[in-house]
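Practice problem. Given the sequence and the SMILES for pyridoxal-5'-phosphate, write out the predicted structure.
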Amino acid sequence: MTTDDAPQRLADVRERIARAEQLAKRPAGATSLIAVSKTHEAPQITPLIAAGQRVFGENRVQEAQAKWPALREATPDIELHLVGQLQSNKAADAVALFDAIHSVDRLSLVTALARAMERQDRRPACFVQVDIGDEPQKGGVAVPELPALLAEARSADLPVVGLMCVPPFDLEAAPWFALLAKLADDHGLPGLSMGMSGDYETAVTLGATHVRVGTALFGAR
Ligand SMILES: *Cc1c(COP(=O)(O)O)cnc(C)c1O
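Answer key:
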C-alpha cells in the first residue's frame, strides 16, 4: 500500500462501519473510528488528516510525544487516544498529551492518573481495559476484579466512560465483544472500545462506540 491510497482506505473503512451500524440498527455515526498510527510517521499520517480523519490512536507515550505536537499545531482539532499499556510513572505525560486513555487496568494507575488530572486540571476520558480472554501478558483487569477496580476509579473521581478489550487473537472475537458489552451494561458504562482491523465490523454490530483500526488504514507495520 502507498500513502496515495490513504483516502480510499479511509473511505472503505468508513463505509464498512456505516454498513455494520445499519445492519445492527444502530444510529449512523454511533461508532468513532480511531486511526491507530503507531510506528507510522507524519508522511503516512498527514494524508489521512487531509482526507478528514481527526481521531488518532497511539500505544506509546514517548512515540506520541515525538510525533503529535507538530501535527496538532497544523490541525488543532485532532483528538488523540492512548490505546497501549501505560506505566504509572508516565501517567502525568499521558494526561498532558491524550484526550482519552483506553488502558486503565490497576489501582496504582488509577491513583497516578487521578493525581495527574488534579494537578493539571485536565480530565481525559478513561476506559478500563478488561483482560477478557484471561491472558495476563496482554494487560487489563481480570474479569472478577473489574467491579472493585471500577469502584476505586469512581471514588478517585476518574472520568471512566467505558470498557476496552483486546480479545485472544486466534479465536473468534464475537463472544468476547458480547461479554464486554454485557459487562459495560452491568456497570452502566456507555463506552465500548473494541474491534481492530480484522474484526471491527463485528465489534460495531455488537455495540462498539470506538473501534481501533491501524493496519486497514495504514498498511502493515
Ligand atoms: C495496534 C493496536 C490496534 C490496531 O491494530 P490493527 O490490527 O493494526 O488494526 C488496536 N488496539 C491496540 C490496543 C493496539 O495496540
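Check your answer against the key. The domain at 3-218 is CATH 3.20.20.10 (TIM Barrel).
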